[in-house]
């Protein structure tokens, strides 16, 4: 009896994903990228008349900024750092010998000033803080980046490198919470227009270690994170395709971000996992996007 092929196998066999030999690291076909572009555009359209400032950062960020952001306190297991060879001629010869012998060749690799961006919004906060206090209406930014998280998996929706498009709001608590409430509605409307089943739930981040459980419980108790979930593999464990995060004054305090009134700024972000929504669509509506239901075609291609 033949087993049902996994979703990853189906995506690779359909040519949508290109296997690289590393779990969670895939090439993407033109057909897949077309869908990504359409989802990305639909996300921006969902922002309606919002006046956003568009900012793009590369997928690597300043290590000092990363260190100060607090990421390592919460998610050391997910972080990826960029190292580079910093040896002399003799070290190079040694490296090549180790390599040829199949041994560890990384002895002379040293950390660079670059780490891989874990979420699209992380590089933004110090940049905004450097401009001085926010305007009375606060700030609203549109960011998109490839992100890295060290969570190798056979689940095609759990990648090590994936794209996140985010809208980030900075201001006083009322402004920031109104933004999040608005995007909770917008996110649901967008996913409904794609004819995907979904649910909305309170969530927590995968905080590391012994203290992690407590932090997760605190995050839930204060309703700081919601996720819009779509069943991809299982009804029981649906996959987060959108996140709606309220950081309270975490980034405001970290970066000395001030409102026009001189208070510590609060921040929130809404993030869409572009590959996750694309995979959910291929899973739900079939592996050929030209054959998707007319409503979905219209929502994405107009
Ligand atoms: P988070 O910062 O964890 O809330 O992530 C924001 C969004 O990025 C999530 O809602 C997902 O849609 C997406 N995402 C997070 N982790 C991954 C991953 N490992 N692979 C693909 N997409 C992801
Ligand atoms: Zn964010």
How would you summarize this macromolecular structure in one to three sentences?
It is built from 11 helices and 12 strands.
How would you explain this protein's 3D organization?
The chain has 302 residues and is α+β, with helices and mostly antiparallel strands. It contains 11 helices and 12 strands. The strands form 3 sheets. It has a 7-stranded mixed beta sheet. The model has no long low-confidence stretch (mean pLDDT 97). It binds adenosine monophosphate and zinc ion (ZN). The site of zinc ion has 6 residues, from strand 12. Zinc ion (ZN) binds next to strand 12.
Topology:
Elements: H1 7-13, E1 17-19, E2 26-28, H2 30-46, E3 53-55, E4 60-62, H3 63-69, H4 71-74, E5 81-85, H5 89-100, E6 109-116, H6 124-129, E7 139-148, E8 161-171, H7 173-193, E9 199-202, H8 209-221, E10 225-230, E11 239-248, H9 250-255, E12 266-273, H10 274-285, H11 294-301
Parallel strand pairs: 3-7
Antiparallel strand pairs: 1-2, 4-6, 5-6, 7-8, 8-12, 9-10, 10-11, 11-12
Helix pairs in contact: 2-10
Bound molecules: adenosine monophosphate (AMP) and zinc ion.
């Amino acid at each position: 009896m033949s087993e049902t092929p996994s979703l990853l196998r189906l995506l690779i066999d359909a040519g949508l994903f290109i296997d690289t030999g590393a779990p969670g690291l895939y090439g993407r076909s033109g057909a897949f990228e077309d869908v990504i572009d359409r989802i990305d555009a639909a996300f921006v359209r969902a922002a309606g008349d919002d006046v956003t400032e568009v900012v793009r950062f590369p997928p690597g960020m300043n290590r000092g900024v990363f260190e100060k952001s607090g990421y390592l306190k919460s998610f050391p297991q997910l972080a990826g750092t960029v190292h580079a060879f910093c040896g002399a001629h003799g070290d190079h010869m040694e490296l090549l010998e180790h390599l040829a012998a199949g041994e560890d060749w990384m002895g002379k690799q040293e950390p660079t000033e670059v780490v891989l961006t874990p979420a699209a919004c992380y590089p933004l906060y110090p940049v905004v803080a450097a401009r001085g206090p926010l305007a009375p209406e606060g700030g609203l930014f549109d960011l998109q980046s490839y992100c890295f998280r060290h969570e190798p998996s056979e689940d095609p929706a759990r990648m090590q490198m994936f794209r996140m498009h985010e809208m980030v709001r900075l201001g006083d608590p009322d402004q920031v919470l109104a933004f999040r409430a608005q995007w909770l509605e917008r996110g649901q409307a967008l996913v409904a227009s794609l004819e995907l089943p979904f649910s909305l739930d309170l969530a927590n981040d995968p905080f590391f270690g012994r203290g992690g459980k407590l932090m997760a419980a605190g995050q839930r108790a204060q309703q700081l994170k919601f996720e819009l979930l779509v069943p991809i593999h299982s009804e029981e464990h649906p996959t987060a395709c959108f996140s709606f995060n309220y950081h309270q004054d975490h980034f405001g305090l970290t970066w000395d971000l001030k409102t026009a009134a001189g208070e510590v700024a609060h921040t929130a972000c809404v993030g869409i996992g572009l590959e996750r929504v694309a995979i959910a669509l291929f899973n739900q509506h079939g592996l050929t996007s030209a054959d998707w239901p007319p409503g979905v075609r219209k929502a994405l291609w107009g």
